[in-house]
Amino acid sequence: MKILTLNLKRQYFDEILAGTKTHEYRDLFPENNDRFIRYRINGKEYKLNEIPSEEDEPGEITPVPIKYDAIKFLTGAYKGTRPYMIVEVLDAKINIPKDDDGNPIIVFDESTNTEFIMAQMDYTLGKVIEKFDR
Questions:
Q1: What range defines the domain where residue 88 resides?
Q2: Which one has a higher pLDDT value, 72 or 48?
């Protein structure tokens, strides 16, 4: 089973346990991109920093979610034994918001001098497979 591990505030942790929060969203940035998505070109998948040039691999680049079977949510202080739960992932989508002209929104990160497309992961959550809550 392929499991993604994420930290979560206690409020959202409790909502997932109660079944009232059925989606988990994560914003995508160049620095966390490789945890969530790959880029598919002609049936081959690449990490962000491994995408070949158009000359080496001509074709359309399509972002695709990494397939995870479950998410392990951790909450609490970053020390010792922390409450956690493992939740089934039913679906994963990449949401790319558009501007008024229908184009993806481009973000500029001044700290890294990097441009990237604004995007967000949307995980549809299923049943709680395992939980530990002291």
A1: 3-132
A2: 72
